[in-house]
């Protein structure tokens, strides 16, 4: 029996502690986790590795999360990859803008492991690539 590949998750977040926290949850037998500290590098990495889901920090200094989601969705091979926004604070108008840009959901940090697992499982069950 062939074992299916582990889900590939790309975290785009300027805080290396967020990567450390997620890497503790996503061990090598649950998922493969990649990290980029800036949106531009994250989009380039996403084009190379084609993740199953992208987790994007809403507040990265010097970058607009809405524009980043739009840029991700403008790249044809990335267009169907779910983008989950992680944030310290959810503002209703920003939430609307992010969802309109193509994000699947916003979740306040720290994202509880159970909620994160449910969101990822839900979206990985849907063909996205």
TrEMBL record:
InterPro entries, A to Z: Bact_response_regulator, CheY-like_superfamily, Sig_transdc_resp-reg_receiver
Gene3D superfamilies: 3.40.50.2300
SMART domains linked to this entry: REC
Keywords, in A-Z order: Phosphoprotein
Boundaries of every Response regulatory domain copy: 8-124
Modified residues (4-aspartylphosphate): 57
SUPFAM superfamilies xrefs: CheY-like
BP GO terms, sorted: phosphorelay signal transduction system
Protein's name according to its UniProt entry: Response regulator
Originating organism: Chitinophaga oryziterrae
């Amino acid at each position: 029996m062939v074992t299916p590949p582990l889900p590939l998750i790309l975290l785009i977040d300027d805080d290396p502690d967020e990567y450390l926290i997620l890497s503790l949850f996503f061990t090598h037998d649950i998922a493969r986790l990649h990290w980029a500290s800036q949106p531009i590098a994250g989009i380039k990495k996403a084009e190379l590795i084609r993740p199953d889901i992208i987790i994007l920090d809403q507040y990265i200094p010097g970058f607009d999360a809405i524009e980043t989601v739009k840029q991700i969705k403008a790249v044809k091979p990335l267009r169907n990859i779910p983008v989950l926004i992680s944030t310290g604070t959810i503002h209703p108008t920003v939430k609307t803008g992010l969802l309109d840009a193509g994000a699947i959901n916003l979740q306040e940090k720290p994202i509880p492991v159970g909620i994160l697992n449910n969101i990822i499982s839900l979206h990985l069950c849907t063909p996205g690539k």
